[in-house]
């Protein structure tokens, strides 16, 4: 501001942060080359953070279900196919070994011989019988007989393990399919955030809207300022996260998102933008991350 406005005789002029003061240098080189700043969170909502030098990789296997859900679709489908194929081959090999040890292969055309599994004459037929057993198809051409106790035990083991594999893999695929990540594609944020006066207060504002007719239940919004800082003791904290108040104390952060809404943050003395001047703002290496949470009305899934 001008000197006469800052003087004690100013008439009820509200105290403004550095962004609105006129006594600071206004000249900003508009033709300077824009700096390429690597984003902390990309526009699609994915964090641009890569974990390196992770030594205790076994921790991923302790929570194998979440690890499979977090994998990309191509790896998930590959594991899905490989798990079933390996189990079918493994039990098919055991069925063939039982038939080979009992001598069923030497009495294929002998009508007086009672084999463990009828019409099992090689590894291919044993593999097909393994698939029929685990998937409960039951064509009826290959049938286990009551003269083979080891085969009956194997049948029970394969049936139980097959049910466990089906529950695990189908559950994993169902959770992955039902994830509401694509729901965020229809949530649109304004391309630019603006700083201007609103009701006599300097505010940082941006807009958010939903393109779908189905509403988001219990929608809430938060904002974080990602900016490196140095403490008074000289400690450097990279990518420090600071809360940006967008109506937490007044309840304005709870949204009824049936039409586009303007989210406002008042730049006051508690705001992290209070000490950043208008000339300094374009030079700051900072990032604002907006987090919108809610529940999809159609599926009742949280996102």
From TrEMBL:
Gene Ontology MF annotations: G-protein activated inward rectifier potassium channel activity
Annotated TM spans: 77-101, 151-175
A biological-process GO annotation: regulation of monoatomic ion transmembrane transport
UniProt GO cellular component terms: I(KACh) inward rectifier potassium channel complex
Compartments where found: Membrane
Reaction(s) catalysed (UniProt annotation): K(+)(in) = K(+)(out)
Keyword Disulfide bond assigned: no
Pfam families xrefs: IRK, IRK_C
Domain named Inward rectifier potassium channel C-terminal: residues: 187-299
Record's keyword annotation contains Ribosomal protein: no
Family matches, as InterPro entries: Ig_E-set, IRK_C, K_chnl_inward-rec_Kir, K_chnl_inward-rec_Kir3.2, K_chnl_inward-rec_Kir_cyto, Kir_TM
Potassium channel inwardly rectifying transmembrane domain sequence ranges: 41-180
UniProt site (Role in the control of polyamine-mediated channel gating and in the blocking by intracellular magnesium): 166
Record's bilayer topology term: Multi-pass membrane protein
Keywords: Ion channel, Ion transport, Membrane, Phosphoprotein, Potassium, Potassium transport, Transmembrane, Transmembrane helix, Transport, Voltage-gated channel
Family from the record: Belongs to the inward rectifier-type potassium channel (TC 1.A.2.1) family. KCNJ6 subfamily.
Name of the protein in its database record: G protein-activated inward rectifier potassium channel 2
Native species: Pipistrellus kuhlii (Kuhl's pipistrelle)
């Amino acid at each position: 501001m001008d000197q006469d406005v800052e003087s004690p005789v100013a008439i009820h002029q509200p105290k403004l942060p550095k962004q609105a003061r006129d006594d600071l240098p206004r000249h900003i080189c508009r033709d300077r080359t824009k700096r390429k700043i690597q984003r902390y969170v990309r526009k699609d909502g994915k964090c641009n953070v890569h974990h390196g030098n992770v030594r205790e990789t076994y921790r991923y296997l302790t929570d194998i279900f979440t690890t499979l859900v977090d994998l990309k679709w191509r790896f998930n489908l590959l594991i899905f196919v490989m798990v079933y194929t390996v189990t079918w081959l493994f039990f098919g090999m055991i069925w063939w070994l039982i038939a080979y040890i009992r001598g069923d292969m030497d009495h294929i055309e002998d009508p007086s011989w009672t084999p463990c599994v009828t019409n099992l004459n090689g590894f291919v037929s044993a593999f097909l019988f393994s698939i029929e057993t685990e998937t409960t198809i039951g064509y009826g051409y290959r049938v286990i007989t009551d003269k083979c106790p080891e085969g009956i035990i194997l049948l029970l083991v394969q049936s139980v393990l097959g049910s466990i594999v089906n529950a695990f893999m189908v559950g994993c695929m169902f959770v992955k399919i039902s994830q509401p990540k694509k729901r965020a594609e229809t949530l649109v944020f304004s391309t630019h955030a603006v700083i201007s006066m609103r009701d006599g207060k300097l505010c940082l504002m941006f807009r958010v809207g939903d393109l779908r007719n189905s509403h988001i239940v219990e929608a809430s919004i938060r904002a974080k300022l990602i900016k490196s800082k140095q403490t008074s003791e000289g400690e450097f904290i990279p990518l420090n996260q600071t809360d940006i108040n967008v109506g937490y104390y007044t309840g304005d952060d709870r949204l009824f998102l049936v039409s586009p809404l303007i989210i406002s943050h008042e730049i006051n003395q508690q705001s992290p933008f209070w000490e950043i001047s208008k000339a300094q703002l374009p030079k700051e290496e900072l990032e604002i991350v907006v987090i919108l949470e809610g529940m999809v009305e159609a599926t009742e899934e949280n996102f």
